[in-house]
Amino acid sequence: MPSIQSDVVIVGAGVTGLTAASRLTAAGYSVTVLEARDRVGGRTWTDEIDGVTLEIGGQWISPDQTALLETVDELGLTIYYRYREGKSVYVDADGLRTEYTGDIFPVGAATAAEIERLIAHIDTVVATVDADKPWEAPNAKALDEISFRAWLESLSDDPVAVANVALFIAGAMLTKPAHAFSALQALLMAASAGSFEHLVDADFILDKRVVGGMQKVSLTLAEQLGDRVHLNAPVRTLRWDEDGVVVTADGGLEASARIALLAVPPTLVSRISFAPPLPRRQQQLHQHLSMGLVIKVHAVYETPFWREAGLSGTAFSPYLVAHEAYDNTIEGDSRGTLVAFVSDERADEMFRLTATERRQRILESLVQYYGPAAANPVVYYESDWASEEWTRGAYATSFDLGGLARFGDDLRSPVGPVHFASSDLAGLGYQHVDGAVRMGRRAAEIIGGLLG
């Protein structure tokens, strides 16, 4: 049986695990990284599909994501801006298509004013929420016991305004129905990005991309770490006591260390058998977290035809199967790529269909946004993270009603020599690659301090 001894064993070679490994190695500690997949990168994955490079996983960087921007710079990677020139498109509940500019959807004047009022009100509450400790916010428990939709409905009697505001958190971020997560969970999402206003502004939240794809962050870190990273090594058991850990992975690989870092989504922690079992608090909190559900759709065309029509490629509708879409063309590529998203209950509906039926229904949304030319992409691909054995959803985990206030303070608490970190546990950058970097840095700092 292969056996490895190191100061730290890290489970997961996503951005969090590799960031922690890189920092600990630079500080002089020995590290072993075990990854279940046959690749590094976790929920970032850049691949070539039918001759086109696609960002299957996370890809964008916003201006406030300074930890990720620093990492990109440190690794010698370059970035470029997402295409955004031209008008956006909005389709209302009656199927009326409108081209517009600005951040507020082209709805009636009274509803537009109500949307702006709701956004402003939400941000007054967001200002009281510390993204690292949202459970300490004023009225945190009450805000965590009411769904985001019910909270919005308590603030406004305009159903169109409520539906449109809910879209920015429910469909675009947590990828769950707005009745399935709390107002506090939504406020955390906004606080993690600096404000709800930032989430509303697609030009802010989806600002830049990495040349060659976001997975290059992980690929470059892994290359620097060399043979410290072991692929195809799903961890099955973790034996621990106050003196250290012994981890067993497939292939009979055994790794002993003083400290273990589980750099995986919290929903995957239960895939490991612990001896002794984790304390009841950890057992309970992991049962109150779940992944969202989203289909990321890539449609590639001979040319970015929408640009010729004066469109940016940005499109929204709470009422269509694909609730949002963007120009996702690789810089320098003569072809045009649109990326669209189908989330939560609409994704449920789509997965009940055959692949052919699903493609047709989703492309119908793109036709409503961009016209008949959108019906016939030369490449069509669906990123289905819910079927990924080592992810099982997207984009990240969130609590059920009441869970954040009840368990949040324990999310990052170590159990003896076992530590936890992932973008799901981040404050700033929550659910984003930036949060993964921040959590990797934080874990390395804490673990380095313990190793002394």
How would you describe this protein?
- Belongs to the flavin monoamine oxidase family.
- This is Flavin monoamine oxidase family protein.
- By secondary structure, the chain is an alpha/beta fold.
- 35% of the residues lie in helices and 23% in strands.
- The protein has three domains: 3-42 and 214-278 and 415-451, FAD/NAD(P)-binding domain, CATH 3.50.50; 46-63 and 78-84 and 205-210 and 293-387, Polyamine Oxidase, Chain A, domain 2, CATH 3.90.660.10; 108-200, Guanine Nucleotide Dissociation Inhibitor, domain 1, CATH 1.10.405.10.
- The protein has helices at 15-26, 66-74, 109-126, 140-144, 148-155, 159-174, 183-192, 196-200, 202-205, 215-225, 280-287, 305-308, 344-351, 355-370, 403-407, 433-451; strands at residues 3-11, 31-34, 46-49, 52-55, 60-61, 79-81, 87-91, 97-100, 208-210, 229-230, 235-241, 244-249, 254-262, 273-275, 289-291, 294-301, 311-316, 324-327, 336-343, 379-384, 397-399, 418-420.
- Strands 1, 2, 10, 11, 12, 13, 14 and 22 form an eight-stranded mixed beta sheet that branches. A seven-stranded mixed beta sheet has the order 8-7-17-18-19-16-20.
- The two termini are 30 Å apart.
- The model has no long low-confidence stretch (mean pLDDT 97).
